[in-house]
Write a structure and sequence with these properties.
It contains 11 helices and no strands. By secondary structure, it is mainly alpha-helical. Helix 8 runs antiparallel to helix 11 and helix 10 packs antiparallel against helix 11.
Length: 293
């Protein structure tokens, strides 16, 4: 029974004809045009700012009750991320297994090198690009967290809007230009997303949270891993005579650096404000003790 279950999962996540025969194209893939992605990102930014402005104009300061919606969203995102992680892992293993004979013949590629560096001329079709497409679509579901934050009357930051918008755009570029490194990037991202959203669901239903900034630490780990892998792609590009989609990779690298700098600024500002609040609390407690004495 266990073997049958594994075979069934393998079939539905890596061997189904829709996955094997997938092809990224404007006629076959929803949301695969430049006009769509630009319109979608612009609409997201406009809607988020409009909702935030409306709530500010009506002087709504208290959070709006959202009930179980954020918890359900977190659970759904954790499950979707876990499925994408499993699907692209099985699909990558199948692609490596089926093309290993060619690598042995040419002696130019290893499985790990392929994860970082697609050969020149790679087209966006087949198993791994199917899951890259699903990952691209799942990015739009992440946008709901922005609207949850606004309805909870949390500050709408430039970092949040920029980060979500750029992540959608980068996922689009991965498919549009068959960019190298995307398989490993999706594996890292979906694994950490399944953990992070699982943790958010855990805390949303009232279970105890970690004694340290769990989500922020996961984001730091992801950014660090991406930075190391980008360096690996850069080396392989020159050592192997070229990786596919390096123009998009260079643009993505610039955007990743921008996200990293904004994240560090946001993290340091948040840490500074937390320290200031702690100092104020300590000062207040000392004043109360002086009064008592």
């Amino acid at each position: 029974m266990g073997l049958t279950l594994v075979q069934s999962i393998t079939y539905w996540l890596s061997e189904h004809p829709s996955i094997v025969n997938f092809r990224w194209s404007p006629t076959q893939s929803w949301g695969s045009t430049w006009s769509f992605v630009i319109t979608a990102i612009s609409s997201y930014v406009v809607l988020a700012n409009t909702l935030n402005l409306v709530l500010a104009l009506i002087k709504r300061r208290r959070p709006l009750p959202l009930g179980p919606i954020p918890a359900i969203h977190s659970l759904a995102m954790a499950l979707i991320s876990a499925v994408i992680f499993t699907g692209i892992l099985l699909s990558a293993a199948a692609e490596i297994r089926e093309t290993r004979w060619f690598w042995r013949r040419t002696r130019t590629t290893t499985p790990f090198q392929w994860l970082l560096c697609f050969p020149l001329g790679t087209r966006p079709s087949g198993r791994v690009f199917f899951w890259s497409y699903i990952f691209y679509l799942s990015r739009f579901l992440h946008l709901f967290r922005t609207f949850f934050a606004i309805l909870r009357r949390r500050k709408l930051t430039f970092f949040r809007l920029f980060n979500h918008s750029i992540l959608i755009f980068m996922s689009f570029l991965w498919l549009e230009f068959s960019q190298s490194f995307q398989v490993l990037a999706i594996l890292l991202t979906t694994f950490l997303y399944s953990v992070v959203y699982g943790y958010r669901f855990w805390t949303a239903i009232g279970l105890p949270s970690a004694c340290f900034p769990f989500v922020v630490n996961c984001q730091v780990v992801l950014l660090g891993c991406n930075l190391v892998c980008h360096f690996g792609v850069f080396l392989l590009h020159f050592l192997r005579g070229g990786c596919n989609g390096m123009g998009a990779w260079g643009f993505n690298s610039v955007l990743n650096v921008a996200i990293l700098l904004l994240f560090l600024k946001f993290y340091l500002t948040r840490k500074k404000s937390t320290l200031e609040v702690a100092r104020e609390d300590d000062a207040s407690s000392m004043m109360l003790k002086d009064k008592d004495t």
